[in-house]
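Hi U.,

Before I forget, here's the chain from the pilot set. I'm dumping it here mostly so it's searchable later in email.
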Amino acid sequence: MAGKRPISFYYILLFIVIFFWGFDPSVCKYFYKDYSASVVAVIATVTSFIFFACFSFRKLKDMNLKFLKIAVPIGFLNGLAGLLQRIGLQYTSPANFAFLEHLAVATVPIVLYILIRKKPTIIQVVSVILCLIGCFILSGMTLSGFRGNIGDILCALSGIIYGLCVALIGIYSKKIDASLYMVVFTFIYFITSLVTLVLLHFTQIEPVKFAFDITLILPVALFGLFSVGITWLLKTIAIKHLDPTFVAIVSPFTAVVAGAISVITKTDILTPKLIIGAVLIMSAAILSGILDVKQSTKKVDSK
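Structure:
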């Protein structure tokens, strides 16, 4: 048991997030017909912030300095990662972006070792390597295509910072309330998204495109609430009860789900790269999952 719920409950939460985020690229691409990417981000984050501010209204009095010292830096890093990712995508290829954003897989075990001296097991090291190779193949990225330009650098930094956030949530999870953390995180994410919108508009990288139509805004807001708000809440809760390294290794499975959706909707074709990449990522997830279950069982038995 993890708390009052079986550990399987938190695995289910994590895979719900992964499955939902697999739809994210296709749905966002649909919304981009009427709204620029930065506008979608602002709508999503402000909707999520309002929701969690209302949902956690009675808990706001518990938002003391001790909590803010943990939640604000992590929330800021999460928002910064999103900002770097959005800007970096403008200057690199989709293949490079798809691989570099998953550098979090390697970042988490390194951060855990540096901060709390938690050594990764051999199985975790093998899982990380398999996962990174799978992401590399699945993305279609090539070594010759990696030029180390500003876009590649920003996307790599984004992936690394996301990994840092996962590790920090795992370390300090006992000291933060998930719903209160979401109030802080979504507010900071909203501010960084708004800054991104202004910067991209005035630099003419991405001029603002906005359709003032409630029938269009409402679906974007609802999707944003789930994509940014609900799913991040579920992931934060899962990280509080699962090994952060396992969470990082499983997360790239979102790309597998996205690839499968593209094949089903006939916007892409089934290729050997998709199959091989998916098998490697799945193998890494299974290996890491077996280890995580064993560790959780030991904790239960020792109580």
